[in-house]
Amino acid sequence: MWEQFLENFMNIGLFHIEIGQVIMWMISFILFYLAIKKGVEPLLLIPIGFGVFAANFPLAGLMEEGGLFYIFFHYGIETELIPPLIFLGLGAMTDFGPVIANPKTFFLGAAAQIGVYMAFFSALLLGFSVPEAASIGIIGGADGPTSIFLSSNLAPHLLGAVSVAAYSYMALVPIIIPPIAKALTTKKERQIIMKQMRPVSKTEKIIYPISASIVIILLVPQSAPLIAMFMLGNLFMECGVVDRLTDVSRNALMNIVTIFLGIGVGATMSAENFLRAQTIYVFILGVVAFAFATAGGVVFAKVMNLFAKEKVNPLIGAAGVSAVPMAARVVHVMGTEANPQNYLLMHAMGPNVAGVIGTAVAAGAFISAIM
Amino acid sequence: MQVKAPMVGKLVSIDVNVGDKVNENDTLATLEAMKMIIKIFAPSDGEIKEILSSPGAVVDPDTPIVTLV
């Protein structure tokens, strides 16, 4: 009897806790602090943080096969279900008007993907495998669901680090973008005023998601899950006859899947998975990716100006770093600083939206090249 | 000269009154677009002659907001 008591007693989690798990708790507390006190992406960092916290208890087995969090992770993320559902909601909130009015801006969003490839090659040089390097590179696209989609596909063991890096750098966009964009432009360039965009008709906006799907999915079939859902959401919104579906896509459904996405991502961050040197590299390479994405967009805008009759303000290239709409706002503020008469917000939305599509395409391209 | 809204948004406030003298780049009105507060600045020195819109209105690009002379 005494032995049985002792055995039960030893099954108390307290005796099995490891130092690594305590460190992971600390990390989750930092995430809570950032979310609650600093307002950093709270809708994501709270569920992610709690996923980290709860998955790092001894004997609880939340992340063991059949455990609750494992089920969230397996069916929601590993099967690649949730990121496309989030894209449905994002599509239902995205106005393609600025891209349609000024299709040139699409190239700026594409140019910013250079950040993805720079980080990819840097990661290869640091000794990461090709699938790992692709998952790290995609951080430069500054798009959470796409990063999760790609790394759960290619390098699930990096999923936690990649998504936390992506979301934290997105929150740092107002700090990362300005110094780079300013260093690459002259004051005179930043003062360039862009003419108001032409109004875009409703018909154009309805046709756009359909025609864009045809072009993009034919070119990069592996981007189909993300692109198809994004465009469906957009069609919901623009067609104007399914307001209920638009509403549920961008509110209720998105909120529901965000909970499971956050927990599932957080729960992958076990001590033995996360407390490794490679996590630090992921964070360093992530910031490299963001920097090159910003630079790529800005430099490409300047190159475009060499040929174009109507000059664009090169700052809007920096909005190619997706992070919608934060990057566009940051660009707007920089433009106003240089010239108070400058209203770049809507112009910056073009590359901004194009950046999201560009990143999804880049993810599709990685998958087709690697798998 | 009419000062117009630079983009779609909701007019939060008009920060001048009829008869005010303003300098170039003074704030005339405040607009909210994409959850961002955007100041509309005076394009030149002048005096506010009329106010053509009111807070709470949703403005399209080119909606006149004030007349500046």
UniProtKB/TrEMBL annotation, chain A:
GO terms for cellular component: plasma membrane. It is found in: Cell membrane. InterPro entries: OadB_MmdB. The chain crosses the membrane at residues 12-36, 43-63, 69-93, 105-128, 166-185, 206-232, 252-271, 280-300, 343-370. One of its GO terms (molecular function) is lyase activity. GO terms for biological process: sodium ion transport. Pfam families: OAD_beta. Keywords: Cell membrane, Ion transport, Membrane, Sodium, Sodium transport, Translocase, Transmembrane, Transmembrane helix, Transport. It is a multi-pass membrane protein. Coiled coil: none annotated. PANTHER family: OXALOACETATE DECARBOXYLASE BETA CHAIN 2. This is Oxaloacetate decarboxylase, beta subunit.
From TrEMBL, chain B:
Pfam families: Biotin_lipoyl. It comes from the Bacteria. Signal peptide: none annotated. Residues 1-69 form the Lipoyl-binding domain. The keyword ATP-binding does not apply. Keywords: Biotin. This is Biotin-requiring enzyme. It comes from Desulfoscipio geothermicus DSM 3669. The lineage of its organism: Bacteria, Bacillati, Bacillota, Clostridia, Eubacteriales.
